[in-house]
Design a protein that fits this description.
Strand content: 15-25%
Number of helices: 8
Oligomer: single chain
Shape: elongated
Low-confidence stretches: 1-11
Structural class: alpha+beta
CATH class of the largest domain: Alpha Beta
Largest sheet: 6 strands, mixed
Length: about 350
């Protein structure tokens, strides 16, 4: 794209151009009036003022995007988080490289998407809380219901009165229906989310997991299981479909709860590397027999087993988990020892958009 001249008002680029930067001089040539706050409040150097408002965790990521734009390798859009006059703002930026006589320019369309981002974050936050609560309730409710059912079966064997037997049978049926309803709800939730088309975006996965673990910790007294999380950084960004990835978390946490006895622990570790993020999900449960380990990621796996409190399994959960991870260009593996516990390892590329 060749531009013959650059008027001071910047409209040679069209009404959708909100920003122009000269690579040769290192100067901002044009910024739309609606975005003047980006360069206000500094001491004269507009670029330094703009850079100072970008969040620290985004600097390296945006530098990589800038390098790709300059090299002509970037086609797409990027979300930038910037400190505005009234707090954080999110801007959607579509940059492109053009030639103006002897100068190279970076032009950009910039849209403020703060309201949309905050709305999505609120929905995601409460969806993650809902999923966490759902799985914890599933674990915490199934146990007492199954115990009640077993006690009824024991009592029924000692009752001779036909009328009383009919009543205990009715109570047992109601308890089983409640257990089946919980199982069906959890299975539907997992299957429906797993079948949706992949929609990636840049996600602070530490924030997502922290919210999830906070909800899990609320049930420690009831479940008798402790939850711990460690990360290499308070902010780790990954390009992912966060709804699907949280379903992976739900499945792994649900399995850990099923096979970890009271007094046990569940650990989540997140480590950021240069181009990847590694996750580790560990429990101190009963472990998986060595003979079954090669089967766990197969659909309708022969490795499926009921949980410690009789929780059923379809045998397809880990198969779907593996598929979701592979959709993200990642890998998943498992190590386990009977009587010691199980650890799942997930590795995802950071930048794929």
């Amino acid at each position: 794209m060749i531009i013959n001249h650059l008027p001071k008002n910047g409209f040679a680029f069209g009404n959708n151009t909100h920003f122009a930067y000269n690579l040769s001089s290192g100067q901002i040539l044009f910024i739309h009036t609606s975005l003047q706050w980006l360069v206000s409040g500094g001491e004269g150097n507009q670029l330094a003022t703009l850079t100072s408002k970008i969040q620290a965790e985004d600097i390296r990521y945006l530098q990589d995007v800038f390098d790709d734009v300059v090299a002509g390798n970037f086609t797409g859009k990027v979300t930038v988080k910037i400190l505005g006059p009234e707090g954080l703002r999110w801007l959607l930026v579509v940059p492109f490289l053009v030639q103006d006589r002897n100068d190279q320019l970076i032009l950009a369309t910039v849209v403020d998407i703060t309201d949309e981002v905050l709305s999505t974050q609120a929905v995601t936050k409460y969806a993650d809380k809902k999923n966490s609560i759902l799985h914890m309730l599933g674990h915490d409710l199934r146990g007492p219901l199954n115990i009640g059912k077993s006690l009824l079966q024991t009592i029924s064997r000692q009752i001779k009165d036909v009328t009383l037997l009919e009543k205990t049978k009715l109570i047992s049926t109601i308890l089983q229906q409640s257990v089946d309803m919980i199982n069906d709800l959890l299975n539907r939730e997992f299957m429906e989310t797993a079948n949706v088309v992949l929609a990636k975006k840049r996600v602070n996965i530490v924030g997502q997991l922290r919210d999830y673990m906070e909800e899990s910790k609320r049930s420690e007294v009831i479940s008798g299981i402790t939850f711990q999380m460690t990360t290499s950084s308070p902010h780790i960004y990954v390009d992912m479909d966060d709804a699907k990835f949280m379903q992976v978390i739900n499945n792994l946490m649900s399995n850990a709860l099923k096979f970890t006895p009271v007094g046990g622990s569940i650990y989540v570790t997140v480590e950021e590397l240069e181009d990847r993020v590694n996750f580790k999900f560990s429990d101190t449960g009963i472990g998986i027999p060595a003979a079954l380990l090669p089967e766990i990621f197969k659909q309708f796996s022969a490795a499926r087993r009921p949980g410690l409190q009789g929780e059923p399994t379809l045998g397809i959960g880990l198969s779907i988990v593996k598929t979701i991870i592979e959709w993200h260009g990642g890998t998943i593996s498992c190590q386990s020892e009977e009587g010691v516990g199980t650890t799942f390892f997930i590795s995802l590329p950071k930048n794929t958009l």
